[in-house]
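Re-run with default settings, no changes from the original entry. Doing this only to confirm the output is reproducible before filing.
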Amino acid sequence: MQKMMFNDRYGLTYAVIDEIKNNTRRIEGGKQFQLAATAAEDFTYEEATGWIVMCCQGVEIFRHKCRYKVGEIVAVAQSYENAGVDPEYPIEGVQLAKEHAGWRNKMFVSAKLMPYRIRITGVRCERLQGISDEECMKEGVVDVTYFKTGGRPYELFALPGHEYEETFNTPRQAFAALIDKVSGRGTWDRNPWVAVYKFELVK
């Protein structure tokens, strides 16, 4: 079983666990991925069957460059401490201690010991800036309209976990700021091809 990591500083792990976030956009495979995705611009999966709906040059390369596949169960990575692992008791025969590298760093945890899992229900490629307002919300952007305005007739949006800080007029503005913080400054402006994973919480 593979694991997928989400940014904790911006509350994205808990947004997945709370079923607020069910989309994620990932730049995968470097230059080869970008070339394959360009050729497979209209590629998508039929969610129910996993079959390729539209086939064109580069689709097979793109499909194999995507780290996660439709139907795959993936662990949501958390540090053992955040996952509620008790260092006094072994889990599935594994004795963990607070000195373990994964105690506070989820890069070093075992996927099979993670309490939450997601199922990949859709995979497609698109340019980063092709995201809609609706999908920005599915990426974890928070609507703080009532919280910030008392219900006045205009909307405001914020980054998850940072609702008391900067606000944005549209979900796209908020997502652009979020992706630059999570993936590096300038990511939104570069507008790279990304693998768009749709998923559902299963545990």
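The radius of gyration is 18 Å. Residues 45-58 have pLDDT under 50 and may be disordered.
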